């Protein structure tokens, strides 16, 4: 059982949790992920590590309640426990000195780019972070990112904060004006990573994406997480989660990620019908 | 009380068959297929045993069970003693009684096998273990002579559990690491409920814990901790993390939505209990016509699971012929009884699909048998232009596994062979690193539960010797 040390609501349905897992906190690196289960009858879901505190033995996850498991997770309170929590899984981000780098984050991906930005900054890169959301409310971790980047650009779809528009528009302007950009990380919803990859295709830059697939074990045993990378089958849990965006078969990845859509809805409905959790009321 | 019967009568008596759930009923549930012996059936069968002075059956038992002794105790109706006799060497009697291929092991060596049917050793073992569980018979207690040395066992499948149990009986401090959230390895994620109820695995694991073994789940050795760091904490290590990486055909369309590896399909159903969705959260998608590629025991498990989950048709697609089928005869028989259709001499070459990524069919080639290959089996060769489309809408790859490198990568000095399996000494199961031993599928490739049990026993004995000689990994590092 794994203790939730701290829980905060970032907005409506987005939460941050610090979980007590000293052994994982000891060795986890930026870019890696964990797999957790809320309860005995739960499913195993992967979440990218948002941050960690080696001294306190804590690992931070950020998630949005968008289905049965994440909804149930959001109902678990500080001082309560998770049934299972394993990691750190996958390869760490390759941090090096590249020059100017851009980190593009959307949704919970904003939290995931934070430790990567910090690592890249520490390695001496000039770090530009671009984060976006639908509106002002949904922008998270702005302060934290400011500290670890040389420049932070915030975009909102409705213009309620920062610049109006999508992250891709801001990225395009940057690329057009700044030829020193060498490498880009895009982490967020699949469609955002796909669009970002398409955008940068005509620029001489590297694009790294972090894929979040449906997993079971997370240790290379089942192949649920498989994707096609440059005509080769790869397992996201053991070969990834970061890949060269240009090589990803995006259509296949998105199809596979939607393969349980119907069941996910059914499961969520079942949860709502049965649930005694009142934490969302009012 | 029952007694031994006349020698002549023993050889005349027919083997007692085991009652089974009817195929028409069992394809709609996940309950066990064979129903086990009653007390009377068990005694009647046990009376057939010749009680040989030099029992050949025992040669064929990697779990080293004193077979004639326990069978005699069944005749004498002392089931408790029979249970303790088995448990002395086999920590998983209800498991091995069900899943061992006895026809190739103990029963093959049985003298009665020469003229008629052998003693049903597996069924008797199962009866004794089930009786003991139902009657809450105390197993073996924690050893009185506790030793100080600590042993780490990586992986809680049959090899790991057996090794841990044997070492604990000798008084060692054993910690068993499991990557998943439940112990049992292939016994919980791989073998379906209808062949091995999970409550039975839980019960036998609990028995091993009572011996003093500390079971730690959710610890991925190679991720959470490295083998290197275990070397500093433990005096010896046994690596039994299983083969565990699925093999795919590498044909076009294999990443479509409705294509599973057998590992994924069975793990969803068995470990995650997708067959109880939505009570359990993990889903599994079943469409109308399922093709399982391969014809081993795992393929039978997958094809039969698909049927129980609601597939209207479940096929086995195998590139060789019936004679080469590697699955146990009993499994094939059960599968056929349930209506699984076998497509022999058929090689899938492409999985067809629609725009949403769903499977719409599988293109195959017909094969014929040519010259024998290096395995001695006749090599299947494709018949030119024999392509045809098998109408299926889901596919399960059950063509075997490969070594999962995650543990090996974190173990410096432990050599693997060209396929990624640990190299070990034939007798001691010691790897190329002194003090680190290995067994089960991560040494043998895909093998059986019982060979893993055997490895666990050999390794436990070698670890005992290693530690008794005063050596320790901790001293080295
Ligand atoms: S999640 Fe099972 S292999 Fe990646």
What assembly state would you assign to the polypeptide chains in this entry? heterodimer
**Number of helices, where a helix is a run of at least 4 consecutive DSSP H or I residues of chain A:** 9
Please give the order of strands in the largest beta sheet of chain B.
3-2-1-4-16
* Percent helix range of chain B: 25-40%
What CATH calls the topology of the largest domain in chain A is Rossmann fold
Helix/strand structural class of chain B: alpha/beta
Given the C-alpha coordinates, what overall shape of chain B results? globular
Count of β-strands of chain A: 16
Kindly report how far apart the N and C termini of chain B lie. Answer: 60 Å
Low-pLDDT segments of chain B? none
The largest sheet of chain A is: 7 strands, antiparallel
Largest sheet, strands/sense/barrel of chain B = 5 strands, parallel
Euclidean distance between termini CA atoms of chain A: 30 Å
- How much of the polypeptide of chain B forms β-strand, as a percent range? 15-25%
Structural class of chain A: alpha/beta
Most extensive protein-chain contact, per-chain counts: A-B, 41 and 42 residues
Ligand species: FE2/S2 (inorganic) cluster
Contiguous helical run count of chain B: 18
């Amino acid at each position: 059982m794994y203790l939730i040390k701290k829980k905060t609501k970032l907005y409506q349905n987005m939460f941050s949790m610090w979980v007590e897992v000293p052994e994982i906190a000891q060795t986890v690196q930026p870019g890696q992920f964990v797999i957790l289960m809320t309860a005995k009858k739960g499913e195993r879901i992967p979440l990218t590590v948002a941050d960690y505190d080696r001294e306190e033995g804590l690992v931070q996850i950020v998630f949005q309640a968008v289905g049965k498991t994440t909804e149930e997770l959001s109902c678990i309170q500080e001082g309560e426990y998770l049934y299972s929590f394993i990691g750190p899984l996958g390869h760490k981000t390759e941090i090096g000195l590249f020059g100017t780098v851009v980190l593009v984050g959307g949704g919970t991906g904003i939290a995931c780019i934070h430790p990567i930005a910090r690592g890249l900054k520490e390695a001496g890169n000039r770090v530009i972070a671009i984060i976006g959301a639908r509106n002002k409310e949904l922008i998270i971790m702005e302060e934290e990112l400011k500290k670890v980047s040389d420049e932070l650009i915030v975009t909102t779809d409705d213009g309620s904060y920062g610049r109006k528009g999508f992250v891709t528009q801001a990225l395009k302007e940057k690329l057009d004006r700044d030829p020193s950009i060498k490498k880009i990380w895009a982490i967020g919803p699949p469609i955002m990573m796909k669009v970002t990859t398409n955008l940068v295709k005509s620029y001489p830059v590297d694009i790294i994406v972090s894929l979040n697939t449906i997993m079971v074990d997370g240790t290379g045993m089942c192949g649920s997480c498989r994707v096609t990378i440059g005509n080769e089958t790869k397992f996201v849990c053991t070969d990834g989660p970061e890949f060269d965006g240009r090589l990803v078969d995006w259509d296949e990845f998105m199809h596979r990620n939607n393969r349980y859509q119907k069941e996910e809805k059914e499961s969520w409905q079942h949860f709502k019908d049965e649930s005694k959790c009142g934490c969302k009321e009012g | 009380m029952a007694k031994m019967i006349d020698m002549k009568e023993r050889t005349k008596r027919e083997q007692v068959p085991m009652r089974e759930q009817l195929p028409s009923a069992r394809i709609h549930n996940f309950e066990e297929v064979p129903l086990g012996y009653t007390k009377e059936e068990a005694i009647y069968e046990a009376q057939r045993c010749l009680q040989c002075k030099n029992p050949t059956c025992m040669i064929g038992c990697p779990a080293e069970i004193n077979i004639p002794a326990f069978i005699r105790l069944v005749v004498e109706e002392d089931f408790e003693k029979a249970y303790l006799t088995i448990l002395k060497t086999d920590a998983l009697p209800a498991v091995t009684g069900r899943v061992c291929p006895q026809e190739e092991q103990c029963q093959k060596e049985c003298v009665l096998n020469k003229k008629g049917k052998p003693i049903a050793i597996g069924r008797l073992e199962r009866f004794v273990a089930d009786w003991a569980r139902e009657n809450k018979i105390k197993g073996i207690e924690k050893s009185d002579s506790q030793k100080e040395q600590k042993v780490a066992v990586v992986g809680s499948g049959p090899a790991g559990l057996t090794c841990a149990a044997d070492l604990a009986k000798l008084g060692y401090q054993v910690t068993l690491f499991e990557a998943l959230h439940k112990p049992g390895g292939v016994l919980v994620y791989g073998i379906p409920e209808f062949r091995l109820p999970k409550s039975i695995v839980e019960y036998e694991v609990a028995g091993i814990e009572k011996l003093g073994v500390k079971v730690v789940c959710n610890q991925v050795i190679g991720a959470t901790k490295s083998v290197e760091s275990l070397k500093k904490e433990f005096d010896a290590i046994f690596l039994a993390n299983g083969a565990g990486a699925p093999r795919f055909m590498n044909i076009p369309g294999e990443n479509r939505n409705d294509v599973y590896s057998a590992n994924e399909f069975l793990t969803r159903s068995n470990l995650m209990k997708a067959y109880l969705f939505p009570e359990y959260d993990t889903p599994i998608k079943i469409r109308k016509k399922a093709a399982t590629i391969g014809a081993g025991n795992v393929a039978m498990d997958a094809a039969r699971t698909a049927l129980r989950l609601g597939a209207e048709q479940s096929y086995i697609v195998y590139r060789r012929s019936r004679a080469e089928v590697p699955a146990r005869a009993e499994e094939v028989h059960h599968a056929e009884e349930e209506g699984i259709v076998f497509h022999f001499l058929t090689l899938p070459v492409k999985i067809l699909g629609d725009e949403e990524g769903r499977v719409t069919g599988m293109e195959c080639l017909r094969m014929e048998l040519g010259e024998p290959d290096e395995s001695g089996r006749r090599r299947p060769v494709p018949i030119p232009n024999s392509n045809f489309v098998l109408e299926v809408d889901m596919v399960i790859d059950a063509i075997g596994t490969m070594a999962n490198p995650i543990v090996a990568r974190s173990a410096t000095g432990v050599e693997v062979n060209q396929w990624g399996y640990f190299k070990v000494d034939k007798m001691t199961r010691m790897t190329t690193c002194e003090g680190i031993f290995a067994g089960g599928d991560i040494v043998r490739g895909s093998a059986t539960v019982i060979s893993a049990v055997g490895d666990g026993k050999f390794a436990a004995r070698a670890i005992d010797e290693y530690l008794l000689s005063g050596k320790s990994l901790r001293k080295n590092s």
